[in-house]
Design a protein that fits this description.
The strands form seven sheets. A three-stranded antiparallel sheet has the order 5-6-7. Helix 6 crosses helix 19 and helix 18 packs across helix 19. Among the domains are: about 60 residues, no CATH class; about 130 residues, no CATH class. It is built from 19 helices and 16 strands. With about 500 residues, the chain is mostly helical.
Length: about 500
């Protein structure tokens, strides 16, 4: 593991992050020290109070700044968007690593998202892999699976990304979907090959489940529900400010009545969700300071874990171990009942998250509610109601909007995101709502293509309400590259065709 003393809370770290020395708090934690970190810290303490000391000069002398992975790439807008993505795969490829700063080295090549994101990200990568499959880049797809399996075997889980400051949290568990994607290329024996890693991931998410009681209802990622069922939440083992967003977290702590350590845990859990951030995690949809992520049982997380349970069961069936296959089938069946019980909001005709602390449904409608359709957990009647809500409330000129609330958060209106388009389109197709699915796909393809022709960029997120404007909100500027946008766009074009 990398040694990262300079990036832990120290006078140097705090001074750099709180002084806005860099526009993006991630910049410093991605730097590579030019000499041992302890020596740099000692030197800083000796020099910082001297007349004429300049912090930025000190940092530039003692650290190598990260270079955005696609920094020198310029798109050729005379090419089709598909041709551009095929070129981008090479631009976004990172070769096997050596230890450097906070980077956790990986043994096989991999695709990074682009922009500020020069490392692999967990749930992003599944959607990137959809594009690798569409491009026929099966070796790279398998390399991605091997890297995630390596992380599971090294850490016991897949972290948010391969940076040491992400240790303590994961991201939405798409590993079993990656395994199924690879199995679709190489055959079902792949499930047996990676069975051990799937079970390790499952143990990570279910840690503490055996310790839950009527009075001790939460532990790590697990929650005992009012009816005694066990479901899951997002969680981080740490309750301190995120190093990569240190100033933002400390400043938010000044605006809330929550204890700082509770706020930091909720923020970190929100980062694990991948939806960092959205009003779906807030008590008051317009107040970031009201974030309470760990009180919430999310519909998307529990749907993903249902898929993991089903995939492990299938792997044991292939191994002809009927007893273990039945065990995981039973776990999946119980979880499906729990999702229907706690996440189907009959009053809304939609799936929502569940507030365990308040013992009630969250009222905020979000595209996370499409996950039971994506995995075919929903009934036909439920899917019909969900589809009607998508058509009436979520469908916008550029695709579907993530939530119905317009806030300053990047996962809320007016923004749309590639993974949510894919899961919504697939979920609708699963229940025969082909016309609506195709319309969403057409609008998203058109938006992505138009922005590319206008700017030469494929963006992390898009404004789907006003397609002439850039997406905004969040803790950093809009990023281009972009791994999961490329992947979903190629997969959709393959299925629905390019726009004229």
């Amino acid at each position: 593991m990398p040694d990262t003393k300079a990036y832990q809370v120290s006078s140097l770290f705090e001074d750099v992050q709180m002084s806005r020395l860099f526009a993006d708090g991630k910049t410093f934690v991605d730097c590579v020290a030019r000499s041992p970190e302890e020596e740099i810290l000692k030197k800083y303490i000796l020099l910082k109070d001297h007349p004429g000391f300049d912090l930025k000069t000190f940092i530039l002398e003692n650290f190598e700044l990260p270079v955005p992975h696609s920094n020198n790439y310029h798109s050729d807008t005379s090419q089709s968007v598909e041709e551009n993505i095929e070129t981008l795969w090479n631009v976004l490829t990172r070769q096997p690593d050596t230890i450097g700063g906070t980077l956790i080295p990986l043994p096989w090549p991999y695709i990074v998202p682009g922009g500020r994101f020069g490392e692999i990200y967990y749930w992003d990568s599944y959607f990137t892999m959809l594009g690798l499959e569409a491009s026929g880049k099966y070796v790279m797809l398998e390399n991605m699976v091997k890297n995630f399996s390596y992380l599971i075997n090294m850490l016991g889980y897949i972290p948010n990304g391969n940076r040491s400051y992400f240790i303590g949290r994961s991201q939405p568990p798409f590993y079993s979907l990656m395994i199924q994607l690879l199995a679709g290329i190489k055959g079902k024996d792949v499930l047996i090959t990676y069975l051990q890693e799937m079970e390790k991931e499952y143990r990570f998410w279910m840690k503490g489940a055996d310790e839950l009681t009527a009075t001790n209802t939460t532990a790590h990622h697990v929650v005992k529900m009012p009816g005694g069922e066990v479901m899951n939440r997002y969680w981080d083992e740490n309750d301190t400010p995120r190093p990569e967003s240190y100033r933002e977290d400390v400043e938010l702590a000044l605006l809330t009545e929550q204890r700082p350590m509770n706020l930091y845990r909720h923020l970190r859990a929100g980062a694990e969700s991948g939806w960092d951030y959205s009003c779906r995690w807030f008590k008051d949809v317009h107040s970031f300071a009201s974030i309470h992520t760990t009180d919430i049982v999310p519909v998307d997380l529990n749907s993903l874990l249902w898929h993991l349970e089903k995939t492990i069961a299938e792997a044991y069936q292939l191994k002809e171990d009927g007893q273990k296959a039945e065990r995981y089938q039973s776990l999946a069946a119980k979880r499906k009942l729990s999702i229907q019980k706690y996440c189907w909001n009959d009053g809304k005709g939609f799936y929502t998250d569940y507030d365990v602390a308040g013992n009630k449904h969250k009222e905020t409608l979000t595209l996370a509610g499409m996950m039971p359709l994506f995995f075919k957990i929903s009934t036909e009647e439920q899917a019909k109601k969900v589809a009607a809500t998508i058509l009436e409330r979520f469908l916008k000129p550029g695709g579907v909007v993530s939530t119905l609330e317009t806030t300053s958060q990047q996962w809320d209106a007016p923004n749309g995101w590639a993974p949510l388009q894919w899961m919504t389109i697939t979920g609708l197709e699963n229940y025969g709502h082909h016309e609506l699915a195709a319309e969403i796909a057409k609008r998203w393809i058109c938006l992505n293509t138009d922005v590319f022709k206008r700017t030469g960029k494929l963006m992390e997120k898009y404004n789907v309400v006003d397609t002439d404007l850039e997406a905004g909100g969040g803790e950093y500027a809009g990023q281009d590259g972009f791994g999961w946008t490329n992947g979903v766009l190629l997969a959709l074009i393959k299925k629905y065709g390019a726009t004229k």
